[in-house]
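Pair request: fold both.
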Amino acid sequence: DGVFIDRHENEIGGTTDVASRPEYADRKTTKTIDGVVTTGWFTEDFTLAELKTLRAGERLPQVRTGNVAYDGRDPILTFDEVVEIARAASARTGRTIAVAPELKHPTYFAGIGLPMEDAFVAELERLNLTGADAPTIVQCFEVGPLERLSRRIKAPLAQLIAAGGAPHDRPDLTYAQMITPDGLKAVAVYAAWVAPDVTLVMPRDTQGRSTAPSSLVGDAHAAGLKVVVWTLRAENVFLPLERRSGALPAAHGDMAGYVRALADTGVDAIFSDFPALAREGLR
């Protein structure tokens, strides 16, 4: 029914209790999303009212065992509800809490008759989030949607960059090409930010140890872009080898130290699942 919701993926079997709901058993199906064959339950096959009956669950229960205690507590939120939470927090704390929505799989959704861009612009307009000073950054792994949005809104845009592959709507243009000096200049035509996988800024060797920082941050700044890296997580399994603590994949390592090392490269911002630890690393 065209309502924007906040999920990392449109397949919700891994992040909700939908698999345990017999009334939705017949919705399980297999689809190809951006070239990846995926089996599960998909947001586009539900109304908002149906989605609101589901409850969220931890996506990585083997790694984040403590979070499992919260399974079944919270509903799926709409984008509008997240904006209201941010605004309430801004009013309560006296500082601006921004939102960073990501348009996920827009070419796929356009292909099934659910184009995102017009509806998303209308949503941003309704929420007064289209201005250059709006407390938002709009992200996307694809290029075309950001190029078109740049002609319709003034809010800052961020080009997401994966560690490999290419944007689904531009298979001829690899992410590696996009982070060359010339590629970054092209990104700067339509975006204010470039958002690379953290390993593109601080690469790792074959053992998983951090190596010398790449030139990406300096090249991006030279092109007039700001840099936000993703995603900083505290668990050993996600950290470079020298930041891990012990052998258990789920144990917490030195994420704050990793944040400090990244800050030294000149990155402008980070995405993190652990904002308190990220702030500690930036003190």
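--- second member of the pair ---
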Amino acid sequence: MNSALLNSFAFVEGNSFLSVFLLLFFAGSGASIRWRLQNLHLWEAWVSTVFVNIFSSFFIGFLVATNPASEVVTVLGVGFLGSLSTFSTVIMQTAKTIENRDHWLTVLILGSNIILGVLFAYIGLRFG
């Protein structure tokens, strides 16, 4: 088994039912909120993706800076913020822009996600 899978089992085995339930609940909530935001169609899909990714980056930085218990980082950081943000959607949106030969949008999507994500994580660390 790979180490990520083993670590997942270790979290389940090493924590209470409530911790595991909260992890699953917050993961489902984060993914649901992201899905809802992307389906409001208030703006282009890639803009929604940038928004949820920088929001998540800020709050994961803030969360880490507050130095909470590891269960809190797992439940909120990995569960909620990890499922709210989305690496796979960024990659898929980028691949589609490359396929459509829209190089400017490709750079904009990647640049905004990476640069703003790192910037907002740093700001979160500073405010935490």
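Observation on the second member. Residues 97 and 106 are 6 Å apart (CA to CA).
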